[in-house]
Amino acid sequence: xxxxxxxxxxxxxxxxxxxxxxxxxxxxxxxxxxxxxxxxxxxxxxxxxxxxxxxxxxxxxxxxxxxxxxxxxxxxxxxxxxxxxxxxxxxxxxxxxxxxxxxxxxxxxxxxxxxxxxxxxxxxxxxxxxxxxxxxxxxxxxxxxxxxxxxxxxxxxxxxxxxxxxxxxxxxxxxxxxxxxxxxxxxxxxxxxxxxxxxxxxxxxxxxxxxxxxxxxxxxxxxxxxxxxxxxxxxxxxxxxxxxxxxxxxxxxxxxxxxxxxxxxxxxxxxxxxxxxxxxxxxxxxxxxxxxxxxxxxxxxxxxxxxxxxxxx
Length: 313
Prior knowledge:
Elements: H1 2-18, H2 26-30, H3 34-69, H4 81-95, H5 101-124, H6 133-155, H7 159-166, H8 184-193, H9 195-201, H10 205-210, H11 215-237, H12 243-255, H13 259-283, H14 292-312
Helix pairs in contact: 1-3, 1-13, 3-8, 3-11, 3-12, 3-13, 4-5, 4-6, 4-11, 5-11, 6-7, 8-11, 12-13, 12-14, 13-14
């Protein structure tokens, strides 16, 4: 499976480098054409790196959140994380107008982390936890946060910014405007290092404690990693839904939920899905682009419904 998925990943990377409104050809690159190399350096490579990091980060975040909440239908979109990050960015725009991108990301991170803690506390107070009830509550919780963000944006005349973040888009990713996503590299490394602990946390607090795993510390670490990922992706490329839901479920269906074994597949699968959605978005109305938020939302939404129906049986 690893070999097949790696081959698909490499193929999608090559296609992603060559497809776009400004064509890049192998013959031009081999001949040393300046225009082709400039497009490759300034646009295609940054975009490819951004897609790979975002896809891996969101899919790994999804599976960590699912282990923490112990529900396979939870991810940042269905737990209010994306909406909390947008609200945090709006607040930083108003209260800290001269702050840099990193400061805005920290504010979004804080909002996302606090929203995640509140969501976990809400879920913990529910006595009868049906499998589809938890993500429904998360979607309602996200709607409340989204409404607060839009009200805040309307009050301070920032609605246009909100509309931009609602639709994730890699078209604006160029050299010098995506490097914040490199913070996802240590996040991914830590996710792999603590994969075994996240698996144990998914068994419940009693089991985790009996196995010598600090339940609260591991949950806090997981929420922090998820919050960093969501904040960095929302502020750099916008909101991209369902990536953290589709891939973890598809991997779990075939290979189980032992993260120490499956996390590389989840990360690679997330990158492949986002690359595929991005390539489709670039080709559907060529030479124009469909934002990745639409293509990923359509694919993820359909798979989400199918998984919900499967879970109800």
